[in-house]
Amino acid sequence: MPVALPAIVVPALIVHILAAVVWVGGMFFALQVLRPSSAALEVEARLALWSRVFDRFFPWVFAAIVLLLASGYGLVFGVYGGFPALPIYVNLMQGIGIFMMMLFLHLYFAPWRRFGIAVARQDWAEGGRQLGQIQMIVTINLILGLIVVAIGGSGPYWS
């Protein structure tokens, strides 16, 4: 007979999955679709486009982070009764996820701010350098995010 779970579990799991899809899917789109598509644009147009894209995407990332933390820790206590009983796959997701969040916060408060200043000054060379740094961090986070998705999807079935 299945074990009865607290009512919060299914909604928390749905929120957790959707928040991860928004963040990881957005990074995938940015790197695999937008980046090569924008490469043919003149530097001014390309940097202006990325500026507008990130202006719209980064609030979604912040929302995803809040939702991932709230739903994730809701699940930790709702399903496992706290941290001592967590299976290894949950600890791996938690650790990698927190590292991803720290990378994003660095991206947002350092290269993203420098990028914005460079674009406002029309310093296209510096804007391009900052965009390259942003894209490198997003690439790392995308790889980590895909790993977390794989762990989350397969972890419950590890023996």
Give the beta-strand count: 0
Please report the distance between the alpha carbons of the first and last residues: 20 Å
Number of helices: 5
Give Rg in angstroms. 18 Å
* Number of individual domains: 1
SSE series: HHHHH
Q: Tell me the major beta sheet.
A: none
| Overall spatial form | elongated
Low-confidence stretches: none
> Helix coverage percent of residues?
over 70%
What does the average pLDDT come to? 96
Structural class assignment: mainly alpha
Strand proportion = under 5%
Protein topology:
Blueprint: H1 9-38, H2 43-80, H3 88-109, H4 111-120, H5 124-154
Helix pairs in contact: 1-2, 1-5, 2-3, 2-5, 3-5, 4-5
Task: Fill in the keyword field for this structure.
mainly alpha; 82% helix; 159 residues
Task: Kindly describe this structure.
With 159 residues, the chain is mostly helical. The two termini are 20 Å apart. The protein has one domain. The chain has helices at residues 9-38, 43-80, 88-109, 111-120, 124-154. It is built from five helices and no strands.
What's the short version?
This protein is an all-alpha fold and 159 residues long.
